[in-house]
Amino acid sequence: MSAPIDRAALLREGAAALTAAGVEAAAGDARALLRWASGLSGAAFSASLRDAPAGAEAAAFRAAIAARKARQPVSQIIGAREFWGRSFEVTPDVLDPRPETEVLIAAALHGPAPARMLDLGVGSGCILLSLLAEWPEARGLGIDASRPALAVAARNADALGLGARVDLRLGDWARGLEGIFDLIVSNPPYIPQAQMAGLSPEVALWEPRLALTPGGDGLGAYRAIAGDLARLLAPGGRALFEVGAGQGPAVSALLQAAGRMISVHDDFDGRGRCVEMRTR
Length: 280
Fold this sequence. Notes:
Rossmann fold; two-stranded antiparallel ribbon; 12 helices; 9 strands; 2 domains; elongated; seven-stranded mixed beta sheet
């Protein structure tokens, strides 16, 4: 009679299955999924690898490994992603919050605290809600063209205790929007159509196309937003946009055409990732 399997053996089984499926970082992904299935904290999980999995843990882990073999992102499988020190719900209806987007948060926090913020294309809410958490006196409005994405953002706002300070609305960028904002932030779809075929399966198959590309050269969303900035930004206000690799000059030119002050912030790899516009 074979001995009961322990977590270490289950972990090896999952890592081998992911490696055979061609998943990068197979061992790390398997560990993250088993830790999630176990419900244990990092230290408790590491100390329990020689223990047998409890209850339905092994079945949950194997189902998670099957989903990961199908290239579903780990964040969607476990339903959450850490961003700027907080946990955000993630589903296939929103972009997976990425570390490079934290550059936009850092750039925003280097400026004055706004009274009122606007996030165009709010998605999971990771940008707007992170800033609201850092600025307890601020209020925010988040716009998105996807009702399911707005539902995710609303749940994240409630989970972080920020629901009373945020308004979430269905919309088409800033079209028809009224009001004045001290800070506007946006991580719009920016992948050029020609690059879509080269995306990883985790992105191409599992993330919302609406949030990935506007088609064409990838700059359509910036063009749509740029014309509304003058009427929406308060005097001395700022707008911060995440941009794709190499897009900083083109987005800067779109904003400079309106006679505004521009700067570009690099990400952790030294690539221009965030374009900042300030009113004069």
